[in-house]
């Protein structure tokens, strides 16, 4: 089953996506998501210039060998661009293998461990009342878990909060990076009030999540974790930038609020110390950025030894291809926790057809052979790539800050 053709498809139906298509000599094809938000063309160049020419003629069924070839063989290991490129190849090859076996992907992984996959929705508001209305709307739709984020008095723009109520926020919202302002003190004083209000109105059954977007120092994160303990969060996400894994130890020693981390990680080594020391509770790396199914299966198995569960990243800047493959993984993985779900717009869903279903706050995996997501290439061609950037974040005095 030789690989005959491999190429990238870059399109922007509403926002940018990079898709990798691999076609075998028998005409079977698989697709993978290679989107790295705000750095899309770096992955395209990595694939087109360095990876795809070396794939032609290789046996598409040797997924493990191709993974090792691209990881060890590159000499320059790890990093988001490399791992996103490997992830796209890996998911496309799993798609091919499952199609050839005439099975939905989850069957190849070991079969289903659950009937449905719990998701969490994003509920955002300009203020606490706006956020409460969004929680109400999502609970009425059947969600059992919601991520809550609200505007903070005195801070003009907050990342992760939609510009208009009832809409999604767009992470890469301008051609060049917009500049946001940040005040840790204003944020830390406000967040516990948001959770108090949500618990008061909705009680304690609903799972509540919150994303800090890496903006605190370890001791500030510990303070926040303690402050929200009475509201029993499902998780507090990315509370610090974690190049220094030891940061999580300090936070862990101060609070019982569960911690999720890793949407910007791409390798098992980024997590190694925090997993084996049990400093975290959930891993966030999406399949597409973490070297695909082959690598993320290893991360999930390693995490399972320490009671750590999956909570894959699922924003709109990962394409439906990544989401579709994740739903197969989520349906199989024994230590599943939750799946993030930020719905794509209608145009994106026209470009990417899919067979997973969404019902009552849960995904139900499809039965089509492969991962069940496809791309309409001629429709995609009508929406060319546009430069789009994530914002940067500055303190009130102008200092560039983590974001
Ligand atoms: O969904 C999340 O938890 C996020 O933090 C996203 O909003 C990311 O910031 C975005 O995916 C970056 O491209
Ligand atoms: Mg996040």
UniProtKB/TrEMBL annotation:
Catalyses which reaction(s): D-gluconate = 2-dehydro-3-deoxy-D-gluconate + H2O
Class of this enzyme: lyase
Mandelate racemase/muconate lactonizing enzyme C-terminal domain span: 128-258
E.C. code: 4.2.1.39
SMART domains in the cross-refs: MR_MLE
Sections of the chain in a coiled coil: none
Annotated PROSITE patterns: MR_MLE_1 (PS00908)
GO molecular function: gluconate dehydratase activity; magnesium ion binding; mannonate dehydratase activity
One GO BP annotation of this record: amino acid catabolic process
Function (record text): Has low dehydratase activity with D-mannonate and D-gluconate, suggesting that these are not physiological substrates and that it has no significant role in the in vivo degradation of these compounds. Has no detectable activity with a panel of 70 other acid sugars (in vitro).
Designated name of the protein: gluconate dehydratase
Organism annotation: Halomonas huangheensis
Lineage summary: Bacteria, Pseudomonadati, Pseudomonadota, Gammaproteobacteria, Oceanospirillales
């Amino acid at each position: 089953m030789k690989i005959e053709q491999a190429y990238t498809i870059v399109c922007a139906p509403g926002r940018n996506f990079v898709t990798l298509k691999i076609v075998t000599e028998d005409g079977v094809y698989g697709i993978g998501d290679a989107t790295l938000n705000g750095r899309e063309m770096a992955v395209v160049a990595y694939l087109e210039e360095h990876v795809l020419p070396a794939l032609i003629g290789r046996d598409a069924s040797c997924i493990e060998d191709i993974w090792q070839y691209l990881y060890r063989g590159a000499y320059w290991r790890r990093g988001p661009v490399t791992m996103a490129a490997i992830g796209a190849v890996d998911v496309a090859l799993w798609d091919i293998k499952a199609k050839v076996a005439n099975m939905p992907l989850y069957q190849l992984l070991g079969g289903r461990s659950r009937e449905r996959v719990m998701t969490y929705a994003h509920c955002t508001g300009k203020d606490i009342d706006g956020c409460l209305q969004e929680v109400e709307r999502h609970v009425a739709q059947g969600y059992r878990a919601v991520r809550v984020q609200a505007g903070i008095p005195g801070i003009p723009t907050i990342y992760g909060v939609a510009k208009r109520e009832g809409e999604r926020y767009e992470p890469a919202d301008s051609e060049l990076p917009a500049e946001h302002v940040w005040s840790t003190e204003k944020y830390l004083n406000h967040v516990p009030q948001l959770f108090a209000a949500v618990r008061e109105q909705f009680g304690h059954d609903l799972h509540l999540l919150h994303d800090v977007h890496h903006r605190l120092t370890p001791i500030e994160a510990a303070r926040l974790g303690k402050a929200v303990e009475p509201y029993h969060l499902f998780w507090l996400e990315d509370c610090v930038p974690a190049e220094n894994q030891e940061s999580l130890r300090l936070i862990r020693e101060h609070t019982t609020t569960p911690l999720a981390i890793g949407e910007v990680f791409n390798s098992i080594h980024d997590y190694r110390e925090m997993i084996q020391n049990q400093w975290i509770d959930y891993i966030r790396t999406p399949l597409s950025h973490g070297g695909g199914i082959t690598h993320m299966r290893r991360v999930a198995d390693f995490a399972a030894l320490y009671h750590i569960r999956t909570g894959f990243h699922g924003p709109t800047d990962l394409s439906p291809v990544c989401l579709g493959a994740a739903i197969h993984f989520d349906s199989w993985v024994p230590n599943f926790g939750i799946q993030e779900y930020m719905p794509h717009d209608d145009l994106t869903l026209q470009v990417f057809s899919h067979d997973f279903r969404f019902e009552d706050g849960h995904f139900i995996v499809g039965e089509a052979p492969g991962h069940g997501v496809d791309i309409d290439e001629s429709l995609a061609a009508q929406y060319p790539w546009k430069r789009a950037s994530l914002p940067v974040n500055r303190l009130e005095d102008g200092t560039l800050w983590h974001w």
